[in-house]
Amino acid sequence: MTMRRGLYPGTFDPLTLGHLDIIRRATRMVDELIIGVAISAGKQPLFSLEERCSLAEQKLRVWLTLTAVWKCKHLTVCSFIMLRR
């Protein structure tokens, strides 16, 4: 069977309950979900890229332990730079 993968990109400055709701819904549709924390040239973030990745990982770890609604086998947080047109 083919593994279904998804990508949820954003600046996540910071990760909010709305983001977590979208992540929760996405985990029901894919086997692996990648949370892509981005740098956007058009935004002035409150937190650095490293801080945003770390905060996202921490929040997701707490949510994973507190809820049983996560269907996704693999959840990854990584960083990338959004290209500006």
Key features of this structure:
single chain; 85 residues; alpha/beta; Rossmann fold; globular
Task: Give a brief rundown of this model.
The protein has 85 residues and is an alpha/beta fold. It contains 2 helices and 3 strands, in the order E-H-E-H-E. It has a single domain (5-81), classed as Rossmann fold.
Can you describe what's shown?
The chain is of the alpha/beta class and 85 residues long. The protein has a single domain (5-81), classed as Rossmann fold (3-Layer(aba) Sandwich). It is 34% helix and 26% strand. The chain has helices at 17-27, 49-66; strands at residues 5-10, 32-39, 74-81. Strands 1-2-3 form a three-stranded parallel β-sheet. The longest helix has 18 residues, at 49-66. It is globular.
CATH class: Alpha Beta
The CATH architecture can be given as 3-Layer(aba) Sandwich
* Total number of beta strands: 3
Q: How is the largest sheet built, in terms of strand order?
A: 1-2-3
The major beta sheet can be summarized as:
3 strands, parallel
Strand content: 25-35%
The CATH superfamily title: HUPs
Mean of residue pLDDT values? 84
Q: How many helices?
A: 2
Head-to-tail CA distance between termini: 37 Å
* Low-confidence regions: none
- CATH topology heading: Rossmann fold
Helix content class: 25-40%
Order of helices and strands: EHEHE
Topology:
Layout: E1 5-10, H1 17-27, E2 32-39, H2 49-66, E3 74-81
Parallel strand pairs: 1-2, 2-3
